[in-house]
Amino acid sequence: MARVIITLLDSFGIGYARDAAAFGDKGSDTLGHIAAWMAANRKNADGSPRYLFLPHLAALGLETAHKLSTGADLAHPLSGEPLQDDLLDGGRVKAAYTCAEEVSKGKDTLSGHWEIAGVPVDFDWGYFPDRPKCFPQELVDTLVKEGNLPGVLGEKLASGTVIIQELGEEHMRTGKPIIYSSADSVLQIACHEETFGLERLYDLCRLAYRLVQPYRVARVIARPFVGKKAGEFVRVAAHRHDYAVPAHEDTLLDYVVAAGGSVYAVGKIADIFAHRGISKHYPAAGLDKIFDATLQAVQDAPDRTLVFSNFVDFDSSFGHRRDALGYGEGLEYVDGRLPELLARLKPDDVLLVTADHGCDPTWKGTDHTREKIPVLFYGNHVKPQQIRPFHTFSDIGQTLASHLKVGPLGHGNAASIWKK
What we know:
single chain; alpha/beta; 14 helices
């Protein structure tokens, strides 16, 4: 019986989308710019350039998917060897590969994941303005009153790692939580795990989630941190929790569970889908722990299971922080461990490597970037080939639904990726 394993590299775009200009993102290219940055800035011991090296992802078609997306070659081959004119006859690409564009109105995490699972977001999320006191006063007053708080700090759009250094000591002294937003449709609350309390933070976020519903905000995120003083505060990624609205239609996950299958969610996938359509949750934070949890989920998964993993560090630790080196070395880490995952695949399994949007670390600002994403299907029954570009992420979900014999989903068209 078939299984599907989705390995989603959060924010790993491969070239700007056709509508990128409307988002201010024309010219962005997460993979291409990371490869160029590393070729120009990272050196071997002898002083020669140390290029981005992703041989296993290249074998799954990543480099060729990027060229399909952008029409341009990367700064240096990901496998260390030049591309051949006829990749398939040469046997170098082992997967069915393409790129996909998003039709959802936003370039946020929920929209990308939901669209992959067959539910595009055809409405506008609510966003908070980039100005001091960015939250409606009524919202803040109600949060303070019902949360029994002495007040709040922040109330602006900010980087989470920066604002805890700025306001962390005052928060510990006064007991006032730090509330802030970003370019996403989100309200975030940062509190010290010891002085404020983790469970109290979660309770406050549940209250905030209820209060932001009239504003059509997609998520409230609990951002616990530890440390003694400014400059030493660090966020505890393992204790982050997202309170997200559920999808407005049934997703691929719902279809799988309704058909008697299972969905094993790794990392923040359960939060992204509001814990709906989830059979088992594997909490994990950090690339190493998320990869370990993915391997365990694949090991545990029975037939007709969807294993869905989100590698959030590419977005939160590298993309938003504009850390091209960290992003590139993170990709190399995942690539180096990919053979462990391939070795655990069963004969009828399909592995998908993909993303949900871009977050080009060389681009202006700290926001996501409107980009195409890689779509790399691998398995014994998958024919190595270049397939048509997907004009909605939902083509991904529809293709996987056909393999799992569920659906059809409400959106998207299945691609023919199978061997005869």
